[in-house]
Give the backbone structure.
Amino acid sequence: MGKHLYCFFLILSLGLVSFISCVIAESKKAKEEDLRVENEQCYLPQSPAFGFGIAALVCLIIGQLVGNLVVCPNFKAKKPLHIPKTLLVLSW
C-alpha cells in the first residue's frame, strides 16, 4: 500500500507541476506588441514560454509512464479484456 501511495503523490505532483507550467507558459508568451517588422520580415523576441511548455510536457510524460508502470503490472486477467488495453493506448 505504501508504494502505491508514494506513486499516487508522485503522479499528482507531476500533474500539478505540469498544469502550473502550462499556465505560466501561457502568461509568458509573446504579445502582439513584441512583434517587429523589418523589410517584410517578422521578428519575435525569445520568450520563456517555450521552456515552460517543454517542462510541462516532460512532467506529463513522466507522470504517464509512472502511472502505467504502477497500474499495468497489477492488472492480470484470465481472459483477455480489450477495453483496458484500448484505454491504455488512447491515454497516450
